[in-house]
Amino acid sequence: MSRSLKQVAVLLVALLCLDPHGRVGSAPICAHGPSGCHVPSLADLFDRVIQHSARMHSLSNDLHSEFEQYFLPSKNHIGKIYRKCHTSNILTPNGKENAQKLAREELTEVILKLLMAWRDPLFQLHQSMADQQDFNSFSSNKALEMGDMAHELRKGVEKVAEKMRVLGMLGNSVTGLSAAEAMLPLSESGEAMSDYELLYCFRRDSNKVQNYLKILKCRIVPEHDC
């Protein structure tokens, strides 16, 4: 077979591997060339976002611990931190049992709202840490990495939601944040939240996201590790 014919054959196989509707959630993986195309299952997509959320929460834990150890003057100061997070206006289920009672659409919407609400605050956190000499570049880069991970996780959850819609498991009622909900957080005094307050709140919310994803997966694909 000539070289040009081989190229045409490879192209045809690649096209056959593509999703005919161009859906993001069901896009195939061709890690080993066109002949190895594999469309990830819903369980696969859930596993990916859950693993990603676990890494993100672990990173937030690390940075939060570093902050407490090196930058807070005393443990007494920790108790005085303003702890009403800017995401408190997003209604989230308290505890596993309440989360399990939410409809799939509602739980998916809560996850997406939490992730969207952290887009600008995490960028603000990185900028603040980068501008302060007290923080080393390693800690500042961790803050930047958390922002990137939250962005990628949101895109991953959107793919999961799209896959669920394609399979008829999810309606089209899932909505994002309003303009007010996406605003940068302020404390009760009207001042911008401190770096530590942002870290405290993000650690809390990243843990919620991780747990909600696990609960949602168990409701959708209960035969997998539930």
Automatic annotation (TrEMBL):
Matching CDD domains: prolactin_2
Signal sequence range: 1-26
PROSITE patterns hit by this protein: SOMATOTROPIN_1, SOMATOTROPIN_2
Subcellular location: Secreted
Keywords: Disulfide bond, Hormone, Secreted, Signal
Gene Ontology terms: cellular component: extracellular space
Keyword Disulfide bond: yes
Keyword Disulfide bond: yes
Classification via Gene3D superfamilies: 1.20.1250.10
Superkingdom, taxonomy of origin: Eukaryota
Gene Ontology annotations of biological process type: positive regulation of receptor signaling pathway via JAK-STAT; response to nutrient levels
GO molecular function terms noted in the UniProt entry: hormone activity
Predominant localisation class: secreted
Family: Belongs to the somatotropin/prolactin family.
Protein name, entry field: Prolactin-like
Native species: Carassius auratus (Goldfish)
This protein's encoding gene: LOC113056526
